[in-house]
UniProtKB/TrEMBL annotation:
PANTHER family: CERAMIDE KINASE-LIKE PROTEIN, SPHINGOSINE KINASE. Residues 146-295 form the DAGKc domain. This is CERKL protein. SMART domains: DAGKc (SM00046). Residues 357-376 are annotated as: Disordered. It comes from the Eukaryota. One of its GO terms (cellular component) is membrane. One of its GO terms (biological process) is sphingolipid metabolic process. Transmembrane segments: none annotated. One of its GO terms (molecular function) is lipid kinase activity. PROSITE patterns: DAGK (PS50146).
Amino acid sequence: RARAAPQERRRKVAPLAAAPPARAGDEPLLRGIFEISKRSCDVVLSARRLRWSPILPESPTGDSSVALQAQEEIIEMKDVFSVKLKRRRFAGQKKGGTLLGITVFKCLNKGENKLTDCAVHLNNLSEDHCQLWFRHLKEILNGFQNRPKSLKVFVNPNSHKREAAHIYYEKVAPLFKLADIKTDVTVTEYEGHALSVLKECELQAFDGVVCVGGDGSVSEVAHGLLLRAQIDAGKDTDYVSKPARAPVPLGVIPAGTTNILAHTLYGIKHAVTATLHIVMGHIQAVDVCTFSTPSKLLRFGFSAMFGFGARTLALAEKHRWMPSSQRKDFAFIKTLADLKPEECELSFLPLRIPQEDGHEKDRKKKERTKRGSKDQWQKIQGHFLNVSIMAIPCLCSMAPRGLAPNTRLNNGSMALIVVQNTSRTEFIKHLKRYTSVENQFNFPFVETYTVQEVKVQPRHKSGPDAKENMCLNAASAEGNYPWNIDGDLMKEASEVHVRVHPQLIDLYGVNTDDLESSQATCNCI
């Protein structure tokens, strides 16, 4: 010990970088020594940060001005999603073991909207020391709001290339377990299975619902959540003018073909990124549409297409025996070759943004509500190749700007995009624009509107055109017109009324307007 004393006197703790006056949450809770990346470090924990600096030896000359400058590293506690005691165990040993220290797991931004998990190991052999730090770290993590502790999970094993189960059990479930999130998993067996489960299950036992699948699966689960909310609120589910909000948030793990909602939420199709947004409790309120006939509610959803987009889906559904990618390519080419417009009447209520402030704005809003909005409705009638109604931007790999780039996730409006009848060549030019950064609406036959409500009334054909149409589209021949609602096929003969309802559901994710591609400032060790 006597020989070691001079050596200890020659060691010096590198001073922590000067910081501005401590804000709330910056006051040190604990300070201690851990070995990090084979270097002894002075570690300080506050409610907001975990920071450390290496402990460096003094200069041999005793000159303190010789850069005892050590890079201070920082982890923001809001980026930490799990902390575990690190132990060495023998083969077959499940409990106990030699304590080695603490492992902190954090969410790391890799750039281009991609998230990943990484671990920082704080090594110290003292049981009491590690237990004290472990308890404080857990208390801080338990204080974060919106982070789920229990989730209801739906896995569609038939999505895309039947890879949803593999994605969940190999990539998603391990992160849920690491974050101490309990899960109740239902592997769906038929269309509508998730909907029937959501109607009956005890939702209050869960902090959120997660869907592993494609756009159709996500749409079904979102519809089920909102339908359950109306039932619990005692509302008539055949006519919903002012729907109740979904009781819990919905998480989306992309495992389909286009994954529009996942792209729109996360800016990327990446299962780990989606999972970490759920684990971290990143919640985004999103607008939802109701699709109704005069007699009943058809669906809650985010987007819909009538005309070309719906006909393509209807044809693809008739060829389910084909592989997914081939089926969709075939349906697209065949529908394009048989391109026909739909004759219909569109009525829509444009979005009106009051300019007044304060009491005057409230007074006029009440007056408009009392006398109705009949004078604001507009109508257009004609032959349309496609009609899109979208409450979200609908980003995907084939449309990087989005199918409706001028709308947002929660601005209380829908984009109405009307493609008038034109030549096949011009229509193809319009479709190609979606894959580029050029404006896909800069054509004389394309009209766009920002609306609150839309009514679509098909006009039944008669005469020679009707006979020709019977060969091309059996659904229209029967008087039922196909609709593509969030990738799900629906057929209706009567008028369809679409309303947008602001921020009706919370989704785990971040608004793509706020996504950043910045690199992380802390290396994983």
